[in-house]
Write a structure and sequence with these properties.
By secondary structure, the chain is an alpha+beta fold. The chain is built from four helices and eight strands; from the N terminus they run βαββββαββααβ. 23% of the residues lie in helices and 47% in strands. Strands 1, 2, 3, 4, 5, 6, 7 and 8 form an eight-stranded antiparallel beta sheet that branches. The protein is globular and about 60 Å long.
């Protein structure tokens, strides 16, 4: 990280920033083209390991690309605020961001899918337990990203 003065290393602060993010962007590669997908997400921490959960349809470009990726990138950000001044050079943009890499696997068992969906719902609603329609579960893919690397920055 170039700006070490903006780096966040405190794990509890990183998790707090993650809690306030409302979108996680997955970065994939399609031949020589970057493919970035904004996604709703949830998260869990098990024995210091961070897991991100996503849901999507059973088909589509990202579903075709994921098996070809050994590692994916992700990015999320929050607390956006423009600061001003007398000249254009005095302006700046405040933010908090988290970037990293990880390995994505499909969650295929029903209990695991429900758990992942509950983590997503808990992230947005602060309510942990939800019921899900079996028909919807059958046409919904749940993905779990095991975070391998992570950096956090604040300005």
């Amino acid at each position: 990280m170039r700006r070490k003065d903006r780096e966040i290393t405190d794990r509890s602060k990183i998790i707090d920033i993650m809690h306030h993010c409302d979108c996680c962007r997955l970065g994939l590669v399609d031949h020589n083209e970057a493919y970035i997908i904004p996604m709703n997400f949830g998260y869990d921490i098990i024995d210091e390991q961070i897991f991100l959960y996503f849901h999507c349809a059973n088909e589509g470009r990202k579903i075709d690309l994921l098996p070809k990726q050994s590692v994916v990138s992700f990015e999320m950000d929050t607390k956006h605020q423009l600061t001003g001044g007398k000249s254009g050079c005095d302006f700046s943009f405040l933010y908090q961001s988290i970037m990293g890499t990880g390995i994505v696997k499909e969650v295929s068992d029903t209990d695991g899918k429900i758990y992942g969906l509950q983590r997503i719902m808990a992230h947005y609603t602060n309510k942990a337990l939800w019921e899900f329609n079996d028909k919807i579960l059958s046409v919904t893919k749940v993905l779990r990203l095991s975070v391998e690397t992570l950096s956090c920055k604040e300005h």
